[in-house]
Amino acid sequence: MGFSLRGLAERSGVSAPMLSQVERGETSPTLVVAEKIAAGLELTLSQLLRLDEGEHVAISRAGKRRRYERGGHRFEELTPPLPGQRADVSVHTLKPGATTGGPGDPPMHEPGSRETAVILEGGLVLFVEGTRHELEEGDSITFDADLPHHFENDGRDPTRFIAVIAAGLRRS
Question: Which of 28, 26, 58 is nearest to 43 (CA)?
Fold first, then answer.
């Protein structure tokens, strides 16, 4: 999922110091606090506490996935939010002229994260620390996702790509 402590504090309404204490095992959260943390992580309390682990297979149904849209960028999470998950897979569509962010946006992924993108349709440009990488249909690229980066569609047709983000795999 790749949330920072501050980001999770904002999303959950639980203070960053409290989250830090829970993470380090210095305190146990009340059920109310645990439920807020779960909501901030987009999990149910059962998922956070791993009470629903009777199954070892999780199916993400097409009509029930998390979807987001901002400007000309639409994306859908293909992986369900599971506790301890270290990789996320998503499919993205960029309209002509659309971007996944901007040159000044901070990195969204935790330190050590890697991202692989596979271009399904159209062309795509990836900027990593200001360096331009042009990609065509069928190409794939892997890069350090904790660096400033964004994708742009500078073509005339929509482009689709799959992104896989693996959290914390690279050593700094």
Answer: 58
Where do the DSSP E strands lie in the chain?
67-70, 73-77, 87-94, 114-121, 124-128, 131-135, 140-144, 149-152, 159-166
Contact 129, 149 (CB under 8 A): yes
pTM above 0.85? Answer: no
Residues 134 and 84 in one domain: yes
Phi, psi dihedrals of residue 10, rounded to the nearest 5°? -65, -45
Q: Same structural domain for residues 80 and 44?
A: no
Contact 135, 78 (CB under 8 A): no
- Confidence class of residue 172 from pLDDT cuts 50, 70 and 90? very low
Count: domains in the chain: 2
CA–CA distances in Å: residue 83 to residues 31, 32, 67, 80, 88? 17, 18, 20, 10, 12
**Which residues span the domain enclosing 37?**
5-48
Cα Rg for the chain, rounded, in angstroms?
Answer: 18
In a domain, 26, yes or no: yes
36 and 12 Cβ atoms separated by less than 8 Å: yes
Q: Which of 9-23, 46-60, 135-149 has the lowest mean pLDDT?
A: 46-60
120 and 35 housed in the same domain = no
Q: How confident is the model at residue 170 (pLDDT cuts 50, 70, 90)?
A: low
